[in-house]
Amino acid sequence: MSDTKLPAQDDSLIRQLWLSNFLTPVLSVALELGLFEALEQDPLPMEELCQRLKLDHDATEALTATLGGAGLLEIHDRCFTLTPVSRSYLLRDSPFYWGNMIRLFQEVRPCHDSLMQTLKQRGPAAMGDGVTLTTGWEESSLSVERATTITSAMHSHSYASALAMAQRLNLPQNCQVLDVGGGSGCFSIALAQKNPSVCFTIADLPSVCHVAQRYIEAFKMDERISTHPLDMFHSPWPSNYDIIFTANIFHDWDASQRQFLLQRARQALKPGGEIMIYEMLIDEDQAGPLIAGLFSVNMLYVTKGKQFRASELATMLTDAGFSHPRTETVYAGYSLTRAKA
């Protein structure tokens, strides 16, 4: 071993991956401590930030070094300040606040053993209420309280993406859109703002529709967006729509359930109607991107599904009787796949 040579690449990537399991807890702790609100108005020196957080110097320093290294804090004239990313997504009053999603997924903390079990046995882990996400959806058993928690988290996750997609999507005049599994309605709301002649129906579980109505009213979209209580696996779907839209829905379900949903969607469309599927996609060579790979691990861990490649979605659609599938990249790793009924 005396002639062992140092590798050309250092081990910093492996070291970062080793320590990355602390990143989300650091973020959730910072949110609970109000660190970002403490810096909302004015930059603060270390001593004053310690006082605001009620932590000693070493603990605060560990947080600021991590959050600064992650691009969420900056230092100017020995004072800490927010970055554009943290100001947009980590302040409670921001319409794009991600804290609800960060909080929800603190209910599920994967470790080596639980992830190994999930990957080998392909069964989702239970959430903090003791049941899996998909159980509540499949059995239509979500209480309004639980639906509020999950829907607000999904809204955190999706609202910026919805606005970005709406900027690029011009819908046909006076068409009718069914937003299946529409949650808070953020995609319908964003699309309605961009397409003033189009009307939308959010189809979701009754408890979720109750929550969605609050968002619809808050955005003053009552005349353009309605809700339709729907157990999508067991109830008849409303029909005669020009477009069926889904966002982050197909990645929740196994192959047979996905085909069932596609068949229902095709039956609910007018002849020549269009399905639109908004998902984060894995590269065709299956070697990235990192965010889509991690998202797929997440979906394997908490649902029955996964993230897809564009070619997989195309095959799913043609197998279900749709034609001319095409995919375009939209925003932050997300793509929109469209096909004709």
TrEMBL record:
Gene3D superfamilies: Vaccinia Virus protein VP39, Winged helix-like DNA-binding domain superfamily/Winged helix DNA-binding domain
Domain O-methyltransferase dimerisation residue range list: 24-90
Alphabetized CDD domains for the sequence: AdoMet_MTases (cd02440)
Molecular-function annotations in GO: O-methyltransferase activity; protein dimerization activity
Active site: 251 (proton acceptor)
Span of domain O-methyltransferase C-terminal: 137-323
Domain of life: Bacteria
Alphabetical UniProt keywords: Methyltransferase, S-adenosyl-L-methionine, Transferase
GO biological process: methylation
Entry-linked PANTHER family: O-METHYLTRANSFERASE CICE, PUTATIVE (AFU_ORTHOLOGUE AFUA_4G14580)-RELATED
Protein name: Methyltransferase
Taxonomic source organism: Winslowiella iniecta
